[in-house]
Specification:
Blueprint (H helix, E strand, L loop, with lengths): L1 E7 L2 H15 L3 E4 L6 E9 L2 H15 L5 E3 L1 E7 L6 E6 L3 H16 L12 E9 L14 E3 L1 E10 L2 E11 L2
Antiparallel strand pairs: 1-3, 1-9, 2-7, 4-8, 5-6, 6-7, 9-10
Length: 175
C-alpha cells in the first residue's frame, strides 16, 4: 500500500481552502484535488506492507507525544513541475513548530528503519494536478485565515481511474 503521514486540515481552514480552490477553478485548468483529499504531508513513505504500516503507527505516536496544535497560515500559491506535470499548491508558513513536527515524524520513521521521501520539507496543500495557469493575473483571491491543526494521520493512498482516495489508518491528536 502507498502510505504517508500528514496533518489533517482543521474544518474552518479546509472550508476556506475549498473556497479558494473553487475561485481558482474559474481561471485555471487542471485536475483539482477533492476537498476530502486535501492535507499537509509531513512524510511520504511510498509502498509499505501491513507490518511496516504498524511500525509507522508506533513512530507517529512517539513523534507526536507532547506536541501541541500546529499553526497553519497560508502564504500564497506556488507550483511544482512544468508543462503537463505542473502541480498547483497553497503554501503554508514554515513555522518552527511545523518544521519540528515534520522532523520528529521523519526521525522516528528512520529510527525504525522505514524509508521515506527525503526531499526537503516544504509545507503546502496540493490544490490541482496537471494545472495550467492563465498568463493574466488571477484576480483577487481570499486566502484561508490562520488556524491550528490538531490531527496527524497515517494515510493509505488507493489509486483508481478517477485519481487517488485516502483512507485513514491511524490518527494522533495533538495537544
Amino acid at each position: 500500500m502507498r502510505a504517508f503521514v500528514a496533518l489533517e486540515l482543521p474544518e474552518a481552514f479546509a472550508d476556506e481552502v475549498s473556497a479558494l480552490a473553487r475561485a481558482l477553478e474559474r481561471t485555471c485548468e487542471g485536475r483539482f484535488v477533492p476537498a476530502e483529499n486535501r492535507h499537509l504531508t509531513l512524510a511520504f513513505l511510498g509502498e509499505v506492507g501491513e507490518a511496516e504500516a504498524r511500525v509507522a503507527m508506533d513512530a507517529l505516536e512517539t513523534a507526536c507525544a507532547g506536541a501541541g496544535p500546529v499553526e497553519l497560515a497560508a502564504e500564497g500559491l506556488g507550483t511544482f513541475g512544468s508543462g503537463r506535470a505542473t502541480t498547483l499548491w497553497l503554501g503554508v508558513r514554515a513555522t518552527d513548530e511545523l518544521g519540528l513536527l515534520a522532523a520528529r515524524a521523519r526521525a522516528e520513521l528512520a529510527a525504525r528503519g522505514l524509508a521515506y521521501d527525503e526531499k526537503p520539507f516544504r509545507p503546502h496543500v496540493t490544490l490541482a494536478r496537471r494545472a495550467r495557469l492563465p498568463r493574466a493575473a488571477l484576480g483577487d483571491l481570499a486566502f484561508p485565515r490562520p488556524d491550528e491543526a490538531r490531527r496527524v494521520t497515517l494515510f493509505r493512498g488507493i489509486l483508481g481511474p478517477d485519481g487517488a482516495r485516502y483512507k485513514s489508518l491511524h490518527t494522533v491528536e495533538l495537544g
